[in-house]
Write a structure and sequence with these properties.
Strand content: under 5%
Helix content: over 70%
Order of helices and strands: HHHHHHHHHHHHHHH
Distance between the termini: 34 Å
CATH topology of the largest domain: Growth Hormone, Chain: A
CATH architecture of the largest domain: Up-down Bundle
CATH class of the largest domain: Mainly Alpha
Number of domains: 2
Length: 376
């Protein structure tokens, strides 16, 4: 029996809240114990990116081969939150000794490996929830539908997307409030410990939700053809780069040029990532950073809502031209504001100009992504 839409939304909400809160709190804590030094948070963020790049394919391949996918989901939850527990506990244990992470030593590599595992498994579990489970819930409810209760794929997907947007906007505000309260009473270590405990409790609730779904993330057609395409899945996991290069060479020159242009556009992406959060923590208060992080999510939602109207009025090509020009202006303003803020002894106005430019750039980034899907 498939899980209900309500359980799916609860499962996704718990994961989103914990993931977004953790990725916001971690650089704040590192900045508090190593002020002015971006190396610890930037290094861990680099490890997280490598984890998503190198580990997602084999983890996803392993998950797809499991007959009891509900149990496999619980196993991944356990490994992910064990990594969070060890990473958070280790940072709290080091406390002021986080300066040791500024050098490439065994401890740094260990923490980086934990961050990579956490990022990779989180990516796989979110894909299972936002893609496979959304389809399963839609198909299951369609089969049981009555005249008064019928939900299609678009309705289920809209509900999960709404949960994602709400939690993404709420998580920074919640962390900002807890940080302001916790640092005044017991210090940042207590805030980190509290979030780690929350992550573990959320994992237990998630495990209970999926406990009665052994075929988690596998549609009826997928379950029937598991044995037939096992070798193909294994091949794609081991040789993903070689196959990608082979497919790339088959594409027309115009398509390759468009893909390179899109990749270069995403090289200009500005977001409230770990490095920027650590830098901002030395310039403004945590509450302002939390509001900024939430504002980037709201701007992304506004870009998604505005995309169909702009494409209909201007056409995809003119909309893309407006978006690229907008992005170039935002990047230029942000770069100028960053250098002015770095050189100023009282950089409040420069920092707020930087944040304003980043928020506006998030709007156009989501808009450009919508244009990409329009062409598909």
């Amino acid at each position: 029996m498939a899980i209900s839409l309500q359980s799916l939304c609860l499962l996704h909400g718990l994961r989103c809240l914990g993931d977004r809160a953790w990725t916001f709190l971690l650089p704040l804590f590192l900045a508090s114990v190593a002020p002015g030094n971006l190396a610890p948070s930037a290094g861990l963020e680099a490890f997280r990116a490598l984890g998503r790049l190198l580990l997602v394919a084999p983890v996803a391949s392993w998950f797809s081969e499991q007959k009891n996918r509900g149990l496999a989901f619980i196993y991944l939850l356990a490994v992910e939150h064990l990594a969070v527990l060890l990473l958070g506990g280790g940072l709290v244990w080091l406390d002021g000794g986080v300066a040791a992470l500024q050098e490439l030593n065994l401890l740094y590599l260990l923490f980086g490996l934990l961050a990579a595992v956490d990022a990779a498994i989180s990516n796989v579990l979110n894909s299972v929830i936002c893609k496979d489970l959304v389809v399963d819930v839609a198909l299951g409810e369609s089969a049981m539908a009555t005249k008064t209760k019928k939900r299609g794929l678009e309705t289920v997907n809209a509900a999960v997307t709404a949960v994602d947007l709400v939690m993404a906007a709420a998580a920074p505000l919640a962390v900002g409030a807890l940080w302001s309260f916790g640092t005044k009473t017991s210090g940042p270590r207590v805030v980190v410990c509290g979030l780690v405990v929350w992550q573990v409790l959320a994992a237990c609730v998630s495990a209970v939700i999926v406990n009665h779904e052994p075929d988690l993330g596998a549609s009826t057609q997928d379950r029937a053809s598991d044995d037939d395409d096992k070798k193909q899945r294994d091949l794609s996991a081991r040789l993903v780069w070689r196959r990608t290069l082979s497919e790339w060479r088959k594409l027309p020159y115009e398509t390759q040029a468009a893909m390179v242009a899109m990749a270069l556009l995403f090289c200009t992406v500005m977001s409230g990532g770990s490095s920027l959060t650590s830098w901002l923590a030395t310039k403004i208060d945590v509450a302002s950073i939390a509001i900024f992080r939430s504002a980037t999510q709201i701007a992304g939602f506004a870009g998604t809502a505005a995309a169909p109207l702009l494409i209909r009025e201007l056409g995809p090509h003119r909309t893309a031209l407006v978006g690229v020009t907008w992005q170039a202006c935002c990047v230029s303003i942000a770069a100028i504001a960053f250098f002015l803020a770095s050189a100023s002894s009282s950089p409040d106005s420069e920092v707020r100009l930087l944040l304003f430019a980043v928020v506006l750039s998030r709007y156009v980034l989501i808009l450009m992504g919508s244009i990409q899907y329009y062409h598909k």
